[in-house]
């Protein structure tokens, strides 16, 4: 081996060694950051679990808020949260998925479409209080919905709409182009290709984006406070079901409400230690609801992918 070849070999080994050192540094840094995040979450969750677990009981779920901490519950809060999330999902999911399909498959590639795509992406990072101010002006005052469950659900739907649109587009974009080409080669129309092939294969990714958006919405406070959610409410909205035909009532849409984050904020702002324990218990319930939603998304995604054949 000549001197030049030996020199080149030493330089290559030095470059490889530097790259391995860089990889090791990045690996250690990443693990350190991950451990800090995980340990912080474990510490906060453990503190909340220790304080809130003794307060969890059937009475806590079936009692209204009270000025006496030992008898206070979250009945109106979790019912309000459930109803608001139903409105949010009913408004955001069809509109967001439909918009994502249109932008990805049907919209012409021109300057207008590019402007829309840029704005949709940027809207995902807009502070939630802006959506609350928009909902206050549009839904509460202009459309006359008032400080109701409907206004809250539509406000949160606007909040998560960009997330659902972006997730839908990314899920459709991840499908191999051969799926489209094969469908078109067999004479399928655009809609047949989308409905029979693209949507089934991208359903798992779309569902993940929907659950992520709903998990963000369930913990939001700023838009709900902005439109006038009550911090203390000792009654439930009208039932969505009734005994006489047509057995379904929509009066609850216009009812006043409160949600779990508002109830927690109310209790945290009180100086008594017992109210702090109530807030920890409510936070524990909210975390469990969020984890349940994510677990459901993981299960449904697994089932969908298992049933598909590429």
From TrEMBL:
Against Pfam families, the record matches this protein to: BPD_transp_1
Location, primary (coarse class): membrane
Q: Which UniProt keywords apply?
A: Cell membrane, Membrane, Transmembrane, Transmembrane helix, Transport
Q: Where is the signal peptide?
A: none
Kindly list the residue ranges recorded as spanning the membrane: 21-50, 75-103, 115-139, 145-167, 198-215, 221-238, 250-268, 280-300
The record's GO CC annotations read:
plasma membrane
What is the protein's membrane topology class? Multi-pass membrane protein
Q: What terms describe the molecular function in GO for this protein?
A: phosphate transmembrane transporter activity
Please give the SUPFAM superfamilies that the UniProt record associates with this protein. Answer: MetI-like
All copies of the ABC transmembrane type-1 domain together span: 78-297
Domain of life of the native organism: Bacteria
In terms of InterPro entries, this protein maps to: MetI-like, MetI-like_sf, Phosphate_PstA
One Gene Ontology biological process: phosphate ion transmembrane transport
The yes or no answer to whether the keyword Glycosyltransferase is present is no
Family of the protein in this entry: Belongs to the binding-protein-dependent transport system permease family. CysTW subfamily.
Q: What is this protein called?
A: Phosphate transport system permease protein PstA
